[in-house]
From TrEMBL:
Organism: Astatotilapia calliptera
Listed name of the protein: Fibronectin type III and SPRY domain containing 1-like
Stretches the record annotates as Disordered: 313-353
Lineage, uppermost ranks: Eukaryota, Metazoa, Chordata, Craniata, Vertebrata
PANTHER family: E3 UBIQUITIN-PROTEIN LIGASE TRIM36-RELATED (PTHR24099), FSD1-LIKE PROTEIN (PTHR24099:SF8)
Biased composition (Polar residues): 335-347
Length: 512
């Protein structure tokens, strides 16, 4: 008996040891898996950096060659200009001197001829001939070119006014170097604001971020900001995550990024400074949390005649006239089949146990609400006739149940079939609302406080408010008949909701 107890004790001890070893091994496996993912991300980041280095090196080398070409071209142009000035002055002086040389030669020949004539006149013996020749000589001397010609060169050979000294320029060329690169700015995370699906980012310029900055640096002219969506707050990019999106040529050390869809946990942001064409390093990225309610249509729940495409649902009948009695009345009255198949036949012909059928042209959202505040928007398409939007307990809706008919769904129903109408529905009760059909509806759900509000966003007016107590997980719910709707998700609760939440708590609503 004692041996049997020892044997059982040994088995139990072995089991405990194995369990402890298994747990330790699982921890090691988890650590190794995390390290493996970290190394993969690191290698991807290094590879991405290497590719960027090669691209940037080619770019700056090309920019250098272009700048040298411009510099050489400027020198050639200035040299040609100076050569032309010297050549033009030389030609002008040459023309003046050539003219004087020609006139001087002509005057010399004329003077020599007159001198010979005068010498010959001295040999004339006849007085009358001598006097006539002397008179002629006197007249010719008065008109002789030699006595009207300036015997000084019209221009000098001095060209010293065109002397150049480019020693200062040569020294400047020798001082040529790369532009001083600005240091990275520092993002002020405490001053960044996330509101209404916009992010305002503020940073300190390099001079302020680093008090020991180089005073010789060129002034900052522009900033570049990059951001990307991520589900982690680490700086390394994980495979499959979005690439950086850019906002360029920012003048002030602040920028607001608007029109964002918050469909990730964080948005990583980094910024760099530029002076002229030189860009510095990016700042260390910061991860800003972007909390919002993000969901999609759950296509597996959609009625077979509803077509789900992204954020849009359209009604596309498959030989069925629809749930309106006027449409069904056009069917062959002698036929024993109704326009809408019976539940039993529908159940047999529709695939998927959760898909809505019959006259419940419904589709649900794929993300549950169990606490907190949530907001999304709906827009009907141009050809819409009837739709409902609201929330429902997923488990409380049968395949043939319509929104607002039971205790587990609340909705706003809009119709412009035959006549326009707007109503709030819950527990098979409807409250007609005296309000024009909205073109953009905001839906706000505060699960903890039991608030469900419908807002006419274009006019910022409260259309209707339900006050209840939610006891099960909720999902967004939609009904579409004739036409279609589109939704906007990934939205923060807008700041304007504060006005409705503080001033409209006392509005009457249907009892749950």
């Amino acid at each position: 008996m004692l041996s049997s107890d020892w044997s059982l004790s040994g088995v139990e001890s072995g089991r405990k040891m194995r369990k402890r070893s298994s747990e330790a091994l699982r921890r090691i496996i988890s650590t190794l898996a995390s390290k493996n993912e970290e190394l993969q991300n690191f290698l991807e980041a290094v590879d991405h950096t290497l590719t960027g280095l090669q691209e940037e090196s080619c770019k700056v080398m090309s920019d250098l060659e272009a700048e040298l070409e411009k510099l050489n071209s400027a020198l050639e142009e200035k040299g040609a200009e100076l050569r032309y000035i010297i050549k033009e002055e030389k030609q002008r002086k040459e023309a003046e001197l050539q003219k004087q040389l020609s006139e001087g030669k002509f005057a010399l020949v004329s003077c020599e001829e007159l001198l010979d004539f005068a010498n010959q006149t001295l040999t004339i013996n006849t007085e009358e001939e001598f006097l006539a020749a002397a008179k002629q000589i006197k007249e010719r001397v008065t008109m002789a070119p030699a006595f009207r010609l300036t015997t000084r060169p019209a221009v000098s050979d001095n060209m010293s006014q065109f002397t150049v000294d480019f020693s200062a320029e040569r020294a400047g060329l020798q001082r040529l170097h790369f532009l001083p690169v600005p240091r990275a700015p520092q993002i002020d995370a405490s001053s960044c604001v996330v509101r209404d699906n916009t992010i305002t980012v503020t940073w300190r310029p390099p001079g302020e971020a680093d008090s020991g900055g180089d005073s010789s640096s060129r002034p900052i002219e522009r900033y570049d900001l990059e951001y990307r969506k991520t589900d982690r707050d680490s700086t390394l990019r994980v495979a499959g995550e979005a690439c950086w999106e850019k906002v360029c040529d920012i003048i002030e050390p602040q920028v607001t990024i608007s029109g964002l869809k918050f469909d990730s946990r964080f948005i990583a942001i980094r910024v760099r400074a530029r002076n002229k064409a030189a860009a510095g390093e990016f700042s260390e990225p910061i991860a800003i949390e972007t909390t919002a309610y993000n969901f999609s249509f759950d296509a597996s729940t959609a009625h077979a005649e509803l077509k789900v495409q992204g954020d849009t649902v359209t009604w596309e009948p498959q030989g069925v006239k629809g749930h309106d009695p006027r449409l069904r009345g056009k069917e062959n009255k002698s036929s024993s089949r109704s326009a809408t198949p019976s539940p039993n036949k529908t159940a047999a012909s529709r695939g998927g146990r959760d898909r809505f059928a019959g006259e419940s042209y419904t589709v649900l959202g794929d993300e549950e609400m169990t606490n907190g505040c949530h907001y999304w928007e709906l827009r009907p398409l141009a050809d819409w006739k009837s739709f409902s939007v609201g929330v429902a307990y997923r488990g409380s809706l049968g395949r043939f149940d319509q929104l607002g008919k039971g205790t587990g769904s609340w909705c706003l129903h809009a119709s412009q079939w035959l006549q326009s109408s707007l109503a709030a529905k819950h527990n098979n009760r409807a409250k007609t609302l005296d309000w024009p059909l909205p073109h953009r509806i905001g839906i706000y759900c505060d699960y903890d406080n039991g608030d469900l509000l419908f807002i006419d966003v274009d006019h910022l007016r409260l259309v209707h408010a339900f006050k209840t107590k939610f006891s099960q997980p909720l999902v967004p719910a939609f009904t579409v008949w004739c036409g279609g709707i589109t939704i906007a998700t990934g939205l923060q609760v807008p700041s304007f909701m504060g006005n409705f939440l503080t001033t409209n708590r006392s509005l009457s609503s249907l009892s749950p």
